[in-house]
Amino acid sequence: MNSPLQRSRSPGSESPPFSKSVPTQTSRKKFWLMVVAAVVALMAFYFWITSSRILGEPAEIEHSVETPVFAQSLGSLLGASFSGGNRVETLINGDQFFPVMLQAIREAEKTVTLETYIWASGTISDRFIEALSERARQGVKVHVIADGMGTLKLDRADRRKMLDAGVDFVVYGREHWYEIKPNINHRTHRKSLVIDGKIGFTGGMCIDDKWLGNADSKELWRETQIKLEGPAVLQMQATFATNWMQTTSRLLFGSEYFPEVVRAGDALAACYKSGPNEDPENARISYLVAIAAARKSIVIAHAYFVPDDLAIEMLLSARKRGVKIEVVVPAINDSRFGRAASRSRWGKLLAAGVVFHQYQTAMYHAKVMVVDDYFVTVGSVNFDNRSFGINDEMNVNILNREVALRNLDAIKADIAQSTPLTLEAFEKRGLMTKVFDHFCGLFRSQL
What pTM did the predictor assign? Predict the structure, then answer.
């Protein structure tokens, strides 16, 4: 006699009564979406807790950037005291700075030290290789550090040309494939060229054809460099020597690298280094102190403007003090992810009256801030956590009205080629754009 259970089954029924159910395609998709979401959340949390935040409280500065106390205090904090007697020349775009830099190399008598992040084979690379190699063959000591990630597009044959000519060329962090640093996220982002310890150059420029010309097309990059002469060049040389020792275990020493100080102008200047292995957060401290000291104006011209919570709080405090703040950012960006992360930080600033300009003509790569028409900082530092806490960086701080006005003139020309971003336009971004911005913003501590 058949049981009720047996009677309930008809011939050809799909499965036994107690068989496990087979997961559907929809349930599998939900499972993997949950896994991805969990991984993203964990990564975002990890990046947040490991982000730079040694300085956690807003700085309140009673002294303006024009007072001697400001220079004395900031220089002491950064381990790079301001010195007088410096001459600073601002050079805009490759048509201005490449000829001057190459000529300085060709006129070197004793030493050339060069550190760069990106070095890619091409037209401008050939010119640097030729100039450096010629000096090395004539007995000038030529030392070059280039970042391991930044040299991925440098042909081995080009590197061999320099080595064969006697150029002491080393790669920071990736000299050989088997010598990768444990912390592969740490890079040298410094950009410096020092001639005989007397003439120095820094800014955002790398050795790549993107920096050729005058930033008159979307394929080229708008850049600011400075040429520095005077006592502060010795600090720039010391910064190079630090990374040279870390990379090669060799010391650069003597008058060929550190000659007797000679006054060249009337600007107060200081060159500081920043990086996880030495003076962590110097760059962040320098920027935030200058913002806290602002009394009239702050002009920020930056390729990658991704302020952290403390920076936003201090910029908002400056607005409450009546400080006018303008920010120039790229409309054309080499990183869609970075651009979105940057946008995720602008809302409160726009609402507080910070004026944003989006540069349209070329990729905007300047790294300049001017405070109260008197303080200027320029170098390799971006206004983001990667520069403030992860990479090796170097900037020159300058206290001089003439230099400040020269940089402001260049930025005003940039603003003329920019479109304003209003709070209304910002808030009208599409839903998907807002979601993407927020998602990318979760990883801002690594950008």
Answer: 0.87
